Amino acid sequence: MTANILHITCSARAEESQSTRFSYRIVERLQPAGVTLRDLTWAPLPHVDSAYAHALAGRPPGEHNAPHLDSLARSEQLIAELDAAHAIVIGLPMHNYTIPSCLKAWVDHVLRIGHTFAPSPEGKRGLLRDRPVYIAVASGGFFTGAKANQPDFVTPYLQAALNTMGLRTLHFFALQGLVFGPERVAQAWSEATAALDAVLAPASAAAAIA
How far apart are the two ends of the chain, measured CA to CA in Å? Predict the structure, then answer.
């Protein structure tokens, strides 16, 4: 398939990470022509700082100093990666019910007025074309389904942030209950794989990364 994937990982557990491993499984199943890997743990992005905040404050170009310009250039590079992708794959662990801070930093750099969204009377309007986003979420406990016993701020937050940019075709894959031993880990993989199979069924596979 002639398509490029933006693959984002953000687990400090590296090759031991269930979310990272399953995200690679997704990439393999999509059979992309090219992959841009953005590892937010081993190459972390700076969180929003004074330079970035001032750069976005609407100052005339002539008043931007070097740190301002560096911050804007970083944001524009990340947005260009996102815009060039035909599909996005994200692997993340649930940290204290929500996304890791390194992924939040990425969101803060790409969710940018005038570039990925614009204000309108009805609210924020996404400026990116829609395309599939596949999100593998790993958790020690249960956060969805009949056994759910903890809050889930990952799903609604990513839905809101990605929808704001125009990305609405979201597929979440839960790898949950991972602290309950190898059998539960194997079952979690089986459940997530079945969910992936359903998304990438033969009838829809051709459109999976169109």
Answer: 9
Q: What is the pLDDT of residue 60?
A: 60
What phi, psi does 38 have (nearest 5°)? -120, 95
Position 155 scores a pLDDT of 98
**CATH code for the domain defined by 4-205:** 3.40.50.360
- pLDDT band at residue 77, thresholds of 50, 70 and 90? very high
Looking from the CA of 43 toward its CB, the CA atoms found within 13 Å total 7
| Side-chain-facing half-sphere of 138: CA atoms under 13 Å | 26
From the DSSP assignment, how many helices (H) and strands (E) are in the chain?
A: 7, 7
Quickly list DSSP for 87-122.
Answer: EEEEEEE-BTTB--HHHHHHHHHHS-BTTTEE--TT
Give the domain ranges of the chain: 4-205
Predicted TM-score of the model (pTM): 0.91
With cut-offs at 50, 70 and 90, classify the pLDDT of residue 203: very low
Look at the block and give the residue holding tokens 């990438």.
Answer: 200
What is the Cα–Cα distance from 189 to 185, expressed in whole angstroms?
A: 6
